[in-house]
Design brief:
With 286 residues, the chain is α/β, with parallel strands linked by helices. It is built from eleven helices and twelve strands. The longest helix is centred in the last third of the chain and has 17 residues, at 249-265. It is globular. Bound molecules: 2'-monophosphoadenosine-5'-diphosphate (ATR). The site of 2'-monophosphoadenosine-5'-diphosphate has 14 residues, from helix 6.
């Protein structure tokens, strides 16, 4: 039931109708008996700033932000009392905006927390603080992943991208622990990798994933895909066929939703509901 005190939060994106965030957050709200609701917003592609600025003052509690607005969400925090977290600044993007009653905004990025949550759940024996991590791709998702890994203490990150300049720009933003490579240098890039993350858009919707120099990959290397439609991407299926441990993008989605939920509604999500099973059912039905 919607009451006179219902807290409102949501997700904003374009398009947004396939977002699974409303499903996840509303199950947590219902199972936890929280008087709140989580809805989806889709302003015009050039209308994010007008939309979000109109929420200052706390018209709603906050927003998760998805493509293509994550960079613009970071720029929202430009006023005197506004705050930007270190991870959002390093990522160059925000996926969480909180609207305080004094008119200020706080922007954060919980995608990195989602990535670490996914690794902790599905590859608990991997010690990221001593691992070389290879990231394929150099878009916003790759930069966010690299930033989160460096902040979490990963000693070395190699970014492999067909457009070298984009990989180099992430490396120069994040410092000497991050190095840039093109796919033809993949053998050097993959040598000694503890984990390989697909942060390209390849594999989305069931297409072929990015190329991997399998002969340069050691036995224990863990493979992670940020794409979760389909859950087992071509990239993960090929890694699995070679006996590698896999981490899928669905736990990353859930892992970024958890701290967002707590920021919106003031308490962590209840463990009594299995949102992974619910999201999986939705993915399979789609
Ligand atoms: P996001 O913000 O989700 O990371 P993006 O910025 O569009 O999305 O980045 C997509 C990534 O997938 C990029 O690294 C892109 O490579 P380029 O930087 O060279 O464009 C990569 N990508 C997309 N299609 C690709 C393809 N066919 N082959 C190789 N890389 C591809």
């Amino acid at each position: 039931m919607i009451s006179g005190q219902t807290l409102v939060a949501g997700v904003v994106g374009w398009p947004v109708r396939h977002s699974m965030s409303p499903l996840i957050h509303n199950h947590w709200l219902q199972a936890g008996g929280v008087d709140g609701v989580y809805v989806a917003f889709s302003p015009p592609k050039d209308g994010f700033s007008a939309f979000a600025s109109g929420l200052r003052g706390g018209a709603i509690r906050g927003l998760n932000v998805t493509l293509p607005f994550k960079e613009q969400a970071l720029s929202l925090a430009s006023g005197a009392g506004d705050q930007v977290s270190d991870i959002a600044r390093l990522s160059g993007a925000a996926n969480l905006v909180l609207f305080d009653s004094d008119g200020s905004v706080r922007v954060d990025n919980t995608d990195g927390e989602g990535l670490l949550y996914a690794f902790a759940r599905q590859a608990p024996s991997l010690n990221l603080t001593s691992a070389l991590v290879v990231i394929l791709g150099a878009g916003g998702a790759a930069r966010g992943a690299a930033a989160a890994l460096i902040l979490a203490g990963v000693p070395r990150v190699h970014i492999v991208n067909r457009t070298l300049e984009k990989a180099q720009s992430i490396a120069s933003a994040l410092g000497p622990k991050v190095q840039a490579f093109v796919p033809t240098q993949a053998e050097a890039a993959f040598d000694g990798a503890g984990a390989v993350i697909n942060a390209t858009s390849l594999g989305l919707g069931g297409g072929e994933g990015p190329a991997v120099p399998w002969q340069s990959v050691s036995e224990g290397t863990v493979f992670m895909d940020m794409v979760y439609r389909p859950l087992e991407t071509d990239f993960l299926a090929k890694a699995k066929a070679r006996g590698h441990q896999m981490v899928d993008g669905l736990d990353m989605l859930i892992g970024q939703a958890r701290p967002s939920f707590e920021a919106f509604f003031g308490a962590p999500p209840t463990p009594s509901v299995d949102v992974r099973a619910i999201a999986l059912a939705q993915l399979t039905a789609a």
